[in-house]
Design goal:
It is a single chain. The protein has 137 residues and is mainly β. The protein has two helices and seven strands, in the order βαββββββα. The longest helix has 6 residues. Strand 3 and strand 4 form a beta hairpin. It has a four-stranded antiparallel β-sheet with strand order 1-2-7-6, with no helix packed on it. Strands 3-4-5 form a three-stranded antiparallel β-sheet, with no helix packed on it.
């Protein structure tokens, strides 16, 4: 067993640091908002009535992940949202949410909308998993 190190003073390898940890700030006094993660499937008639596809109710057969974030007393213009492959970073003047996502997402094909009556931000993220080409064939 041999450890290769480029710099003998390095105490960790850059691959060991989780994506999004640069956003994590333990000294930030803003509280974390309430949120809920839901999964969404696109079902057709052949899925529901005939059972012709391999879809089941598990998250492995879902195409989208929907994150609903409660943001009371917040205006749409005060929301800053950054979505990366494995991290959602949301900031407002009063709230902060750094969420490490359970699946990789395609941030370019994702969308967000603010429901002002419910004071909720709804973020729909397109899942991007390694074997989706088999699950959704």
């Amino acid at each position: 067993f041999q450890v290769k190190s480029e710099d003998s003073k390095t105490i960790w390898n850059t691959e060991e640091i989780p994506e999004g940890s640069e956003f994590d700030d333990i000294w930030d006094p803003r509280e974390q908002p309430e949120y809920q993660i839901l999964f969404k499937q696109c079902l057709r008639t052949e899925d529901l009535f005939f059972g012709m596809s391999r879809k089941d109710p598990s998250t492995a057969c879902c195409e989208d992940m929907v994150i609903q974030i409660k943001l009371p007393e917040t205006k749409y213009s005060d929301i800053t949202l950054d979505i990366q492959e494995k991290v959602l970073d949301l900031r407002t003047p009063k709230k902060k949410l750094l969420l490490h996502l359970p699946y990789c997402v395609d941030s370019k094909n994702s969308k967000a909308r603010f429901l002002s009556e419910e004071e909720t931000l709804e973020v729909t993220l397109r899942l991007s998993r390694q074997f989706d080409f088999i699950n959704f064939a």
